[in-house]
Amino acid sequence: MSPRRTVEYELSTTGVDAQGRPRRVPLVTEGGTAVALEPELTLEPELEGEHMLINLGPQHPATHGVLRLVLELDGETVVRCIPHIGYLHCGFEKIGEYRQYNQIIPWTDREDYLNAPGNNVAFVLGAERLFGIEITERCKVLRVIACELSRIMSHLVWLGTTCIDIGAFTPFLWSFQERENIYKLLEDWIGARLTTSLTRVGGMGADIPSGWTQGLNNFIRTFPKTIDEVDRLLTRHAIWVGRTVGLGVMSPDEAVNYGLSGPMLRASGVAYDVRRDFPYLDYETYDFDVPVSTHGDVYDRYLVRMEEMRQSVRILQQALARLPEGPINVDDPRVILPPKNKAMSEMESMIHHFKLVMEGPRPPIGESYVAVESPKGEKGYYMVSDGTSKPVRWRIRPPSFVNLSAIPKMVEGHLLSDVIAINASIDIVMGEIDR
Amino acid sequence: MTAPFAVVTPGSAAPGATAPATPKNLPHTGGEANPSAEALRARFGAAIERVDVVWGETTVYVQGARLLEIVRWLHDDPAQQYDYLSDVTAVEHRDLDQPLEVVWHLRSLPFRRFLRVKVRIAKGEKLEVDSVWPVYKGADWLEREAYDMFGIDFRGHPDMRRILMWESFKEGYPLRKDFPLRGRFSRSEQLRQALDQDPEARYSMEELSVADAFEDLPPDMRERLASGEKVGE
Lengths: 435, 233
Hints:
Structural class of chain B: alpha/beta
Distance between the termini of chain B: 45 Å
Helix content of chain B: 10-25%
Radius of gyration of chain B: 22 Å
Mean pLDDT of chain A: 86
Oligomer: heterodimer
Structural class of chain A: alpha+beta
Shape of chain B: globular
CATH topology of the domain at 35-165 in chain B: Beta Polymerase, domain 2
Largest interface: A-B, 75 and 69 residues
CATH class of the largest domain in chain A: Mainly Alpha
Number of helices of chain B: 6
Helix content of chain A: 40-55%
CATH topology of the largest domain in chain A: Cytochrome-c3 Hydrogenase, chain B
Order of helices and strands of chain B: HEEHEEEEHEHHH
Strand content of chain B: 15-25%
Strand content of chain A: 5-15%
Mean pLDDT of chain B: 84
Number of strands of chain B: 7
C-alpha cells in the first residue's frame, strides 16, 4: 500500500521557466517537511513527419450548418483540406420541375434562408423575363426595399456568428436585436418572418400596410448607431485584428478565376457588383457606393460587409423617398388573377381566372438567366421553359457554393484555429450550397 | 501583412461605353446579339453551330469537340476577356428526342458582357465534354455538380467525384428526366441501404491515402486500404 501523499502548490512563485513550463511545482510533504516534487518529464509524442486527419463537422457549431471539412494536419498547420457537402441536399431543382412558377417561390425561401426576400425577388425577376413582363414602378421600389432589408439581415447574421466563432459575444446580441427589428417589419408586411414568399410573378404577395414606412424610417434612423457601435468595438480591437488579418488571402486574379463573388470578391479588390455592372430593378438610378478592399483577407471581408450595410441604408432612404403610389401588380391576365368582382361578372375575366387557377401561368418557349447581388454574391436563376406551366429546368447559381469551393486554397498553410475564421468569412449558408 | 492589391474595376476595357442600365422591354427573339458572337463566327467558322438571342441573352451553340479551345480563346483574347465563369449546368428536355444541353454562363468583367455557351449532346452519344477547369478554377465544383446530377463526364477535370449525393449513391443521376421524383427505390429500401452503411467509415480512401492515420483506422478500412483500393472503384 503506497503512503498517502498531500500535494500542495506553492502559490508565491510566479512565471514560467526557460522551457515555458510553469515555475510552480507541486510540493510533497514527507514527514512534515515540504519537498518539491520533480515534475514528471512529459514528453510530447514524436509527431514529426506524421500527419493527422481530423474531421471538422458535419456537427460542429463553427461550420455554420452541416459542412464537413476533412483536414490533414501537420502539427497544427493545415496541409490539405477536403470539403464534403450535400448533407442538406433536398433536390430543390428537381422539385421545381414539377411545380408551377409561383409554386417555386416558397422553395426559394428555403435555400438561402437568411436572405429569403432577396431570393423571392431574384426568382420572380427571372420568371418575369421569361414571360416578358415589365413590372410596375411601385413594385420595383418595394422589391428594392425587400432586397436591401434582406441584405442587412443576412450580413447581421454573418456578423453575429462570425464574432461568436472568433470569440466575441457582444456583437452577436446587438446584431440579432437589429435583425429582430427587420423581422418585425417583414412580419407586418407579409405575415411571415423567415420564409417570406414575398413576391409573385408580376407583382408582390402584398402591398405594405399603412404606417409601415414609419417603422422602416425608425429602423433606418436607429440601425446605423448599432453598426457604429460594433465598428467601435471590433475594427481596432487587437484580438479581432490579430485573428483576422492576413488570413485566407485571395488575389484579384485568383478570386475572379475561382468565380468568387459578393463581398469575397470585393475584399480582393475587384469592384464587381451585379447591381452596378448588370443592373436590375433600376439600381443604376440609386446613389450608392460599391465598397472595395485591397488585401483580400478575412479582415477586409469584414470591412466590406460593414460598409455594405451602411450603403444598404442609403439605398433604403432613397427608395423610401421615391416610393410611388400605384398598383403593385402588373395588369397582365397571363400571370395576375383578375379582381374578384370582375371574375364573377365578366366572361373574359372568368376565363382568365379559370385558366390561371387550373393551368397556371405559361411562359413562351425560351430561357433566361437573371443574376442579382445577394448578400453572398452573384445569385443567378436560370430557367428554361418549353411553353408549359412548369419549367423544364430551374437552376440556382448559388454564390456560397462557388465561394466555398475555394476554401482548400484559402486554408491550406494556415493553423487549425484559423480555419474557423476563414470559413466564417465566406458567409456560407448550407441550405443554399446543398439545395 | 501583404501588400495591397490594385483595384480592378469592371468595364475598364470599354471606357467610352454607355453606363449599364436595367434592360427594359426585351424582345422575345431577335434582340441585339452580343458582339462576341460575331467575333466567334469570324474566328471559328463552322464550329459555331448557331447563335440565338432570346430575351436579350445571347446563346452560342458550339461543337463539343472544340469547346475548350473556344472557351480558352474567349478567356484570353484581349477583345473578349471572358474572365468570369458564372455557372456550369445542363438541361435535359422533356422531349427525350431533343439533345441534352450543357450550358456555360460566362461574363466578361472588363467589357461587362454576358454570354451563354451551349454544347448539345445528341441522344445515344456518350455524355462527355471537355472540362473548362484548366481555364477557370471555379469550374471545379460546378462541373462536379453537373456530373453528380446529370452524369456528364468532364474530360480533364482533376477530381470527378459526386458532390451533393454521397459517394456510394447507386441510383443514377437525379436531375435526369428518367429519374423519378421520389427516387428509384422505395422508402423502406432507402432506409435499409442507409442502415447498411458503416457509420465508422468516416474517411474516404483518398483521404486516408494522404495521411498516415493508418493505425487509428477501423479494421475493415485498414484491410481495404492495404488491398490497394482506390476512390470510386
